[in-house]
Amino acid sequence: MFKSIKESQITISELMLPSHSNFSGKIHGGYILNLMDQIAFACASKHSRNYCVTASVNKVDFLNPIDVGELVTLKASVNYTGRTSMVIGVRVESENIQTGETKHCNSSYFTMVAKDENGKNAPVPGIILDSEQSIRRFSRSITRQEQAKKRSNSFKASEFKIDDYIELLKGHNTKVEL
């Protein structure tokens, strides 16, 4: 079974209140991460028609701060489907409601796993790739997964070779005392 990407896309907006801020009047990154996880869950659950759990979050860079009083909009879309997992792309934008100025605040990728009523991994529908953008996003997810596997294997304690990395440390704020 395959579904169109549009069938599962979700957008939410929320006004940022003082209770969401830190002492400098900027919105807590943790609060934004919570909203991102919620929308990723909703998008994945809508696509799979199952309860979903967060398996991983790939790189969250906070590009621009969000101020109290701004309207934050989060957009979620299925970028990749595996057998039981999905990569949900989440984009966060803020808008100054007085000036209309918008800022891209961050984007991230949530890997979500569908669960059945017994808590076992459940198969998910595939997605229909109907644009160059959807093919790019799907391909990017495959590449990101391959890179993650390489990263975790090269730094396993049993595989790590100090001589391969000792030169890398030079010029960094560190002192090696072996």
TrEMBL record:
Its EC number is 3.1.2.20. Residues 6-118 form the HotDog ACOT-type domain. PANTHER family: ACYL COENZYME A THIOESTER HYDROLASE, PROTEIN VDLD. One of its GO terms (molecular function) is fatty acyl-CoA hydrolase activity. InterPro entries: Cytosol_ACT, HOTDOG_ACOT, HotDog_dom_sf, Thioestr_dom. This is Acyl-CoA thioesterase. It holds the Pfam family 4HBT. It is an enzyme of class 3 (hydrolase). The keyword Iron does not apply. Keywords: Hydrolase. The keyword Hydrolase applies. CDD domains: BFIT_BACH (cd03442). Belongs to the acyl coenzyme A hydrolase family.
